[in-house]
Design goal:
The complex is a heterodimer of chains A (319) and B (248).
Chain A (H helix, E strand, L loop, with lengths): L1 E4 L2 E2 L2 E2 L1 H17 L3 E6 L16 E5 L9 H15 L3 E5 L2 H14 L2 E6 L10 E6 L4 E7 L4 E5 L14 E4 L10 E7 L11 E5 L9 H11 L2 E4 L1 H5 L20 E5 L5 H7 L4 E6 L12 E4 L2 H15 L3
Parallel strand pairs in A: 1-4, 1-6, 4-5, 5-11, 6-10, 7-10, 13-14, 13-15, 15-16, 16-17
Antiparallel strand pairs in A: 2-3, 8-9
Chain B lengths: L1 E5 L2 E3 L7 E2 L4 E2 L6 E3 L1 H17 L4 E8 L4 H10 L3 E6 L6 H15 L3 E5 L10 H9 L3 E11 L2 E8 L2 E8 L2 E5 L11 H7 L4 E4 L8 E7 L8 E2 L5 H10 L5
Parallel strand pairs in B: 1-6, 1-8, 6-7, 7-13, 8-12, 9-12
Antiparallel strand pairs in B: 2-5, 3-4, 9-10, 10-11
Classes of the chains: A alpha/beta (319), B alpha/beta (248).
Chain lengths: 319, 248
Amino acid sequence: MVLIFADQTDGQFKKTTFEALSYGAKVAEQLGVHAEALVLGTVNENLNSLGKYGVTKVHHVRNEVLNSFDAQVYTQVISEAVKATGAKVVVVAHNNTGRAIAGRLSARLKAAMVPAAVSLPDTTGGFIVKKVVFSGKAFANVSLNTDIKIISLNMNAFKIAAVEGTAEVSVLDIPVEAAKVKVVATNKVTGEIPLTEATRVVSAGRGLKGPENWGLVENLAKALNAALACSRPVADSGWRPHHEHVGQTGIAIAPNLYVAAGISGAIQHLAGVNRSKVIVVINKDPEAPFFKAADYGVVGDVFEVLPKLTDEVQKFKGV
Amino acid sequence: MKILVCISKTPDTTAKIAFKNGNSQFDDNGVQWIINPYDEWYALVRAIELKEKDASTVLHLVNVGGADADPIIRKALALGGDEAIRINTTDLHDSFYVASQIAEVARNGGYDLIFTGKETIDYNGSSIGGMVAELVGLPYISLATHFEISGATATVTREIEGGEEVDEVSLPVVVSCQKGMAEARIPNMRGIMSARTKPLKVVEPIEAPVFTTIQNFELPPPKAGVKLINPDNLSELVRLLHEEAKVI
């Protein structure tokens, strides 16, 4: 059986969870076994509905301790659930929660784990999964050589597939240890599309000359319904918050559309964005290295191109 | 207080990524090696800042690798580590093997705080911290952007889905560090001089299993080449994004 950890935030599921569920269902289909989901803590949603991502059963551990996250406690509960259900493959989303638990789970279950996975397993002669290495500049095919296997699925690496069906919900009674990590505050970025979940991203660099010009970037992002990002010098100069920095040492993203304005495209920046499906580069320097990695390019002044492009997008959308 | 910072040797961020021997090995010809940036800029520098606030702090470094890691270990000592331990192994092992070695050092060292970078820029695993925490039986806070300490309690800000969270935890704890924790530094001449005489202990690895093996590497398929659009004809770009690329 393939067990997918369906991570929830404030009682709700996110895109990365649906990707993990769809992926896990496909892995199960490939292995000729069932896919089942594991949910921890209180949820506001009807768990039967997770069936539409291909799972036949949802195991729910309802203990309230699980409403705040402690990697040690989550690992203990997920490990017990794996043992109780006899799961042979465990799928988690490689989001912030997944990164906190995947390694722990691997150590606890003595199970091989592949982080930042981007492919279905090749099971023709073993169990081999492709993963991102060198910050997106290459891939490695990793063989998982233990009885239980853990896959931490990279974001935007697998398409959500909705099917017909509802899942049976079963309450799983697992004793839960007391949490050692106490959550004292949470600050959610509201009203914006989280960068890691965005299907479209508009990003800008030093070519914008100063934070006061970011309205141009924001307008295009709004027209495209895209999240905002920036290059490292921009975040380092304090023009934009650090959580918008994409690149080798910032966030790695893989949206369907990445628009880069006034970013030269240093190799460290490319490492964070080169898994984007389509890259549009706007730069006045025709020699900017970013054009080599782009699908579409506009050689022009960002201060002229951005407003014009925003107009054209709005026209296209009939605004 | 006693702090252990885990440092890994990685290719420089500008290194050309190529493979050899039938794509089974990284081609390190001409590659410059550095301390993994997350380990150096965030984990190590934050640990040094904590030591600067409390001079009684002991700061140890651990690396799992061969003698070719010694230059980057010396650099970490020059930045401000007191003593380094290198687990002597040159074979290619997986994360669990590496974590098992670090866990052994952690168990025997009586550390209050164990810092790692959020991931290495070569394997991108982000798993060592969690594995060490599990093997030693400690709490783990990942992707930390701020870290403060007061007595035996740490206050840590970490990145969560769509925002951040502030956690409190009693020491000892394992923390993985990312941007926000500290600012990169360069070693000064005094640091470089003193690093030469600081202890760098080389110890042999313990027996530990390997769960995964890398079969081979692949480079992403090359881009077809950029299609340039006239800046006076941006409706064409919108049309292409809609009709050809199908992304809007």
